[in-house]
Amino acid sequence: MSSVRTVLGDLPAERLGVCDAHDHLFFGSPRLPGEELDSRSAARAELAAFRAQGGDAVVQWTPYGLGRRAADLPSLAREAGVHVVAATGLHQDVHYDGATLDGLRHRLAEVFVTELTEGIGTSGVRAGLVKVAGGFHALDAHTRWTMTAAAEAHHATDAPIAVHLELGTGALDVLDLLCGELGVPPQRVILGHLNRAPDGVAHRQAAEAGCWLAFDGPSRAHHATDWRMPEAVRALADAGFGDRLLLGGDTTTAAARSVDGGPGMPYLLRRVRPRLALAVGEELVARILAENPGRAFGVEWR
């Protein structure tokens, strides 16, 4: 039976509910000094605000070494009444120091599998996906290393693989590597940040390959493509790919949280949902939010 691996245990995929398919409760990177998401109380408030808008689940894409605070996730999920999914994986190399990467050099797939099957550190919280990242229009050596390890972890566990596309680029190269060379079924691959590069041809080709397409990160000051997202979603829906689409918020800085004056998690349901409903209809938006995520993140765990 297909299930989503949440921080409170495996959940039948059909029970996931209205889902923010890509966001962060905790996140910290040397590339974003002073903007760390490291407050438990702020994370709880953000989950509560999302829940108040009708949200049921949040998939946290924060990978290894970037402040996941996995031990805090179960209690936050219980207190807010929201299903939370944690991630293993590795981001681009610029987010890590050399010593961290050297320590993982010959055991990365093993780390991913352990975090998926046994738990993250001593927290006992099992990850429900592997998050990796591409580069800008390119797949460098670090990307190939991390994606190879992600594919090994997928083959061992059936875990889905979520991919940060740098500025929305490189989708087809990622699919060539993961699904072509490394043998990952496309229905286990989730491509993130497609809204940042609204290339309809690339979107259509990625959808035809059979993967999941995530439009995540609305209202970012340095990504002026919000206004094109409904048109991109409508084009894919009209082409018959409405059942392959996901939506997320991708809150990565403290200033972006709703509790600190930003759009945050609730914006997805408060503004994006009705805006998209005008473009593609409420029924499809409801399916994108409440049915597609269960199928994307629900697998038959091994």
Automatic annotation (TrEMBL):
Entry EC number(s): 3.1.1.104
Residue positions, PTM N6-carboxylysine: 131
Gene Ontology terms for molecular function? hydrolase activity
The UniProt keyword set, sorted, is: Hydrolase, Metal-binding
User: Which InterPro entries does this UniProt record tie to the protein?
Assistant: Metal_Hydrolase, Phosphotriesterase
PROSITE patterns to which the protein is assigned, alphabetical? PHOSPHOTRIESTERASE_2
Primary enzyme class: hydrolase
What the record says about family reads: Belongs to the metallo-dependent hydrolases superfamily. Phosphotriesterase family.
The name of this protein is: Metal-dependent phosphotriesterase family hydrolase
